[in-house]
From TrEMBL:
Name this protein carries in UniProt: Spermidine/putrescine import ATP-binding protein PotA
Keywords for this protein: ATP-binding, Cell membrane, Hydrolase, Membrane, Nucleotide-binding, Translocase, Transport
A GO cellular component entry from the record: ATP-binding cassette (ABC) transporter complex
Pfam family for this entry, one: ABC_tran
This enzyme's EC code(s): 7.6.2.11
Subunit structure: The complex is composed of two ATP-binding proteins (PotA), two transmembrane proteins (PotB and PotC) and a solute-binding protein (PotD).
Annotated source species: Thermoclostridium stercorarium (strain ATCC 35414 / DSM 8532 / NCIMB 11754)
Length: 346
């Protein structure tokens, strides 16, 4: 495991009585691609701005490579930022935009040239040196902004919803490109998005936030398969969240039946919330199902059908390539490993 490069310890930030970030603790490792994910207003940008040095925490400490940096100004932090509104110099060409910071630092001309050539290659804009930035597409402009940040060779790059202004197709392409760039340059990326799919696609580690607090930190697979609470289960992907009771280790009751599961460590007969993902439920004949129900709605979604099935005191959402029409009696099946149990009301 590589070492911690950024660490936040008990960090709180308030704006006129509103707590934007509430006592968060987080560390980020060297070369990691970490994403802060959560709904609008949950404190992602504030967290990023404190790491960048554009906001001071009211409480707590921020460390860079083990050194406390609360009082270090942004330009001395070895951290660069790419904002959603990529503030490029529209009267300059691509080359000069990327060169700007290096000229201020008075780097030798050939060094500047060498670095810019490398950056243009990295962001796939070779041959665009003399183009004015306002003649470029949104995606190309954002690549210039990324090149301009990376050319300073920061240890950490902060990206605040950098693809937010792009249309879906371009955003998906840029997601892949950004991941490749991050692996190629070997720089820590701290990325902010409210788009859960984007977070799951790109990140080594996802930090789920809500109301200024960290809800869960984990790999995309962990966050998806083992959400720690209702908020995470609901926010990441679609879920059926059913009230149940944990009978004993590996045995949970819901929808009027007991089911084997892989969860343990709850109290005897403890009330729990059970999560089952729609794509983990299959429909079958009523007599072969674990739960019997009636289809109340069917929507064709392209890759699958999305159906609602009323049964066992709950309305289950199911995503399946098999379809049963509205009104059909069906059975629902799922596997023990597809049941995830959480503390009730967490
Ligand atoms: P996010 O980036 O997740 O959408 P922000 O970090 O921008 O969230 O905001 C978190 C909370 O702090 C919100 O309630 C927001 O209104 C508030 N906030 C952010 N910046 C300021 C500011 N400069 N002045 C007052 N309130 C702010
Ligand atoms: Mg924001």
């Amino acid at each position: 495991m590589s070492k911690k490069i950024i660490e936040l310890v008990n960090v709180t930030k308030r704006y006129n009585g509103v707590t934007a970030v509430k006592n968060i603790n987080l560390y980020i490792r060297e070369n990691e691609f970490v994403t802060l994910l959560g709904p609008s207003g949950c404190g992602k940008t504030t967290t990023l701005r404190m790491i960048g040095g554009f906001e001071d925490p009211d409480e707590g400490d921020i460390y860079f490579d083990g050194v406390r940096i609360n009082d270090v100004p942004p330009y001395k932090r070895n951290i660069n930022t790419v904002f959603q509104r990529y503030a490029l110099f529209t009267h300059m060409n691509v080359y000069e935009n990327i060169a700007f910071g290096l000229r201020i630092k008075k780097l030798p001309k050939d060094e500047i040239d060498r670095r810019i050539k490398r950056m243009l290659k990295l962001v796939d804009l070779e041959g665009f040196e003399n183009r004015h930035v306002d003649s470029l597409s949104g995606g190309q402009q954002q690549r210039v902004a990324i090149a301009r940040a990376l050319v300073n060779e920061p240890k950490v790059l902060l990206l605040d919803e950098p693809l937010g202004a792009l249309d879906l197709k371009l955003r998906k392409e840029m997601q892949i490109e950004l991941m490749d760039m991050q692996k190629n340059v070997g720089i820590t990326f701290i990325y902010v998005t409210h788009d859960q799919e984007e977070a799951l696609t790109m990140s080594d580690t996802v930090v789920v936030m809500n109301n200024g607090e960290i809800q869960q930190v984990g790999t995309p697979v962990d966050i998806y398969n083992e959400p720690v609470n209702r908020f995470v289960a609901d926010f990441i992907g679609e879920s059926n969240i059913i009230e149940g009771v944990m009978i004993e280790d590996y045995l949970v009751e819901f929808s009027g039946r007991k089911f084997k599961c892989l969860d343990k460590g709850f109290g005897h007969n403890e009330p729990v919330d059970v999560v089952i993902r729609p794509e983990d439920i299959d429909i079958t004949d009523p007599d072969k199902g674990l739960i019997q129900g009636v289809v109340t709605s069917v929507v064709f979604k392209g890759v699958h059908y999305e159906m609602l099935v009323e049964g066992g005191g709950f309305e289950y959402m199911i995503q399946s390539t098999d379809m049963a029409p509205v009104g059909a009696n069906v059975g629902l099946t799922f596997n023990p490993e597809d049941i995830h149990v959480m503390k009730r009301g967490s």
